[in-house]
Amino acid sequence: MTGILSRTMTAGLMVAATFMVLPGMLARADDALSVKMTLENNTFTPSEVRVPANTPFVLKVLNGEREAAEFESTDMKFEKVAPAFTQVILHVRPLKPGRYLLYNEYRQDVARAYIVAE
Ligand SMILES: [Cu+2]
Questions:
Q1: pLDDT bracket for residue 28 (50, 70, 90)
Q2: How far is the CA of 108 from the centre of ligand 1 (A)?
Q3: What is the 109 CA–ligand 1 centroid distance (Å)?
Q4: How far is the CA of 105 from the centre of ligand 1 (A)?
Q5: How many domains would you assign to the chain?
Q6: Ligand 1 center to 92 CA (angstroms)
Q7: Residue 72 alpha carbon to ligand 1 centre in Å
Q8: Contact at 8 Å (CB) between 71 and 37?
Q9: What is the dihedral of CA 78, 61, 39, 55, to 10 degrees?
Q10: CA of 25 to the centre of ligand 1 (A)
């Protein structure tokens, strides 16, 4: 239920993340809200995180599995492969209030989590 919210992100990280996910876009390090999740044993921790609605944020998901995962969300329109024991950084566009599903596409049946925008 409780997400790890952090407004601290170094400019260097922000540039790297932007380069990975949105090539060509300029980094904005001033207002980065970041949220973290970890996937381990087919379970996301936390399984639900809250973010402010209508605010862009950075979602960092660590794949703690021994095999690759694909973090995907049709609700939030992203998908990214994460090799074993790596973290992916996703720039999520502002969300209207609601509950948004994300999952490991390789194990959709079990590994699911929610972003709650409010
Ligand atoms: Cu996919």
A1: low
A2: 10
A3: 14
A4: 6
A5: 1
A6: 16
A7: 6
A8: no
A9: -70
A10: 23
Please name the amino acid found at residue 118.
Answer: E
Domain containing residue 72: 4-117
CATH code of the domain containing 26: 2.60.40.420
Q: Report the greatest alpha carbon distance in the chain.
A: 38
What's the gap in Å between 86 CA and the centre of ligand 1? 17
Confidence of residue 24 (pLDDT cuts 50, 70, 90): very low
pTM of the model: 0.72
- Could you give phi then psi for residue 13, rounded to 5 degrees? -60, -40
CA–CA distance, 4 with 9 (Å, rounded to integer):
13
pLDDT tens for each residue of 71-99 = 999 999 999 999 999 999 999 999 999 99
b/e per residue 77-95 (b: at least 16 CB within 10 A): ebebebeeeeebbbbbeeb
